[in-house]
Amino acid sequence: MNKPKIIVTRKWPTAVEDRLRALYDVRLNESDIPMTADELKTALQTVDALLSTVTDPITADILSVPNKRVKIIGNFGVGYNNIDIEAAKKEGLVVTNTPHVLTDCTADIAMLLLLMSARRGSEGDRLVRNRQWRGWAPTHMLGQKVTGKTLGLIGFGRIAQAMARKAHYGFGMKILCYAPHAPTPESLKEYQATYYATVDEVLAESDFISLHCPGGAATKHLINEQRLKLMRPSAHLINTARGDVVDSDALIRALKERWIAGAGLDVYEGEPNVVPGFLELDNVALLPHLGSATEETRVAMGNRVLDNIAAFFAGKEPGDRVV
User: Fold this and answer.
1) Residue of 26, 228, 242, 317 with fewest CB within 10 Å of its CB?
2) Which residues pair with 6 in a beta bridge?
């Protein structure tokens, strides 16, 4: 029996690629250059499974290519807003993601950005590297204390709750949260968290805001000029969710005009492009989408994709099917 034919759109960890070679007739992306729309269309016509990443825009136009051979798209990432899910459903394609395995690492990055923003970590690093530091002084680069402050979480899924655990039990932070559907009393009790029915209430009451909501039309520019003005002047905004959840121009203005004290970003609108205004600011910490970037997590994500497609090809229901 012939092995299923697979295309992987980007370079994956070596351990996962080795497993792919052993199990499938696979074409890997050794150059790690993202595939074009035409290349993705050709892939859909020539393979049984396409293993995509969150950087691959799988649009309705791509999915509607005639004479498709592909049956399943295994997305490398917990998010899947890079795929037009309605179009995939219409075309009868199965789509899977990789939840659970990146929860703690993404929450770690959110906590890192919170600390960097509060204590002016990026600014201090630049000062030392540029040989501009003149030594310790009583009023030099004063930041803000984190321990005991109030953390507001927009979204209260797995990653948000992992951050709540780290912040509450590690730093004694008070936890507030908003989610479209009220969390269970048990989950709130675990972190001594308080649920608010609106985003605005959480923004107004928190010292730090961390975003943990999916991307897409429903959350595009959820954090806009109006909402940034609800935050305290001493507050910080952390985004490890999706770039388009925040209106970049509004945030740049908020940071320049000090509506808020600082921000920490791991994701951006239109990444890898970053709106130039962010690069001119000292009060924003910038990371290159490192949320799940540990060896252990990226291997686990790849293996999760492989488990999903293995189940599919065995005639079973993939564990992480989203459509």
Assistant:
1) 317
2) 26, 49
Q: What is the pLDDT of residue 139?
A: 98
Number of helices (H), then strands (E), in the chain:
13, 12
Active-site entry in 236, 242, 298, 304: 242
Q: Which of 165, 232, 253, 289 is catalytic?
A: 289
Chain centroid offset of residue 47 CA: 28
Model confidence pLDDT, tens digit, residues 217-245:
999 999 999 999 999 999 999 999 999 99
CA–CA distance, 177 with 137 (Å, rounded to integer): 38
Distance set, CA 147 to CA 117, 144, 163, 167, 215 (Å): 14, 9, 14, 8, 30
> Residue 190: left if φ>0, alpha if ψ -120 to 50, beta else—which one?
alpha
Annotated catalytic residue, options 17, 190, 201, 271: 271
**pTM for this entry:** 0.96
pLDDT the model gives residue 219 = 97
